[in-house]
Design brief:
By secondary structure, the protein is mainly α. The protein is built from twelve helices and two strands. Strands 1-2 form a two-stranded antiparallel ribbon.
Length: 335
């Protein structure tokens, strides 16, 4: 919020009001920069705000601001330029839609009764929806995209609509499933690894056809997201587990690099080198996950009709006849 204040609102406010004095603009940026903290604090001070909810709000802000682009394309770039010659209406629209997006996202968060992890997964679905829509259009058109006003409008609406609709699709899929914050991060990390594998495969195959390249990117990236989701289906990753998995993945690649140095590998990006890079990263990713996510990571999400009990055992000091005596406290919670 403070960065938005210093950038968009600190500069956009004076621009909309027609302020050109350098001193006033600098002061406005300082006020907006500092005021961004108090505005965010005032909005969230009585709100439970885990990481997933913050991501959800940020995604809403992004959708709000980005709605400007399909609006302009639908109206027509030339028509919009004639309508808003100064650009002030455009700036005012973007500045208004960002907080509106935050409020609407928070409204959905409460309506859908999301957990922290579920909110994080849904927020991450927005770029996934946009990327897949772009991929489908590329598969359809290849190198020959139609270039006319009507199709440009349809494409802009399709791309934004896919990003906007992805959270609703994701919500239907995950609403009865257990996701922690690190589960969501693990899926995103795995899709990043999938993208690396896709690019590596494209390089190995020396593919130059845009449809083949797009199909590999969509298939492998989405495939790794699906695989990661399957791996955590009956597990809940704990806070910090993704960091360990990331370190394990990186460590495997460093070891592979060490062997390359030891055996005087000439080109680590030859076809053999690329295969070894892929093998190292994927092995590190998979086996570190298996080591981290043991049997003690079973799902913590409980349905309403499910009953259970948790036990905790803690060391304590008890006072007896003015002398401390070590003891143990056993606590049982039924739910």
């Amino acid at each position: 919020t403070m960065l938005l204040g210093n950038g968009l609102y600190g500069w956009g406010g004076p621009f909309v009001m027609g302020v050109t004095d350098g001193t006033l603009m600098a002061a406005s940026q300082a006020f907006a920069f500092g005021g961004g903290f108090y505005a965010a604090y005032s909005y969230t001070k009585n709100m439970e705000l885990p990481y997933g909810r913050w991501q959800f709000q940020s995604a809403g802000a992004a959708l709000g601001g980005l709605s400007f682009f399909p609006l302009v394309v639908t109206v027509g770039i030339d028509n919009w330029a004639d309508f808003d010659k100064s650009g002030k209406i455009s700036m005012l629209y973007i500045m208004s839609m960002i907080p509106y997006g935050v409020v609407q996202a928070d409204k959905r968060y409460n309506e859908w009764s999301l957990t922290n992890g579920q909110a994080s997964v849904i927020a991450g679905s927005i770029p996934w929806g946009f990327a897949n829509a772009l991929g489908v259009l590329t598969l359809a058109y290849g190198d020959n995209w139609p270039d006319n006003a009507v199709m440009n409008r349809l494409h802009a609406l399709a791309l934004y609509g896919a990003g906007y609709g992805a959270p609703f699709f994701a919500k239907q899929y995950i609403q009865d499933k257990s996701y922690t914050e690190d589960d969501a991060l693990y899926i995103g990390f795995s899709m990043g690894l999938g993208m690396f594998n896709a690019l590596s495969t494209i390089s190995l195959l020396e593919a130059d056809n845009i449809r083949a390249i797009t199909a590999l990117m969509i298939g492998i990236t989405n495939g790794y997201g699906y695989l990661a989701n399957s791996l955590i289906e009956d597990k809940d990753l704990r806070k910090g587990d993704l960091r360990i998995i990331s370190l394990g993945t990186g460590a495997a690649f460093i070891i592979r690099t060490g062997f390359g140095i030891l055996f005087e590998e000439v080109n680590p990006f030859s076809k053999t080198g690329i295969l070894l890079n892929m093998a190292a990263l994927n092995t590190g990713w998979y086996y570190t996950f298996k080591w981290v996510a043991g049997d003690n990571h079973k799902n913590s999400y409980l349905k309403e009709n499910k009953k259970g009990m948790s036990l905790s055992l803690k060391p304590i000091l008890m006072s007896r006849y003015s002398s401390p005596i070590p003891g143990l406290r056993l606590q049982a919670t039924f739910f």
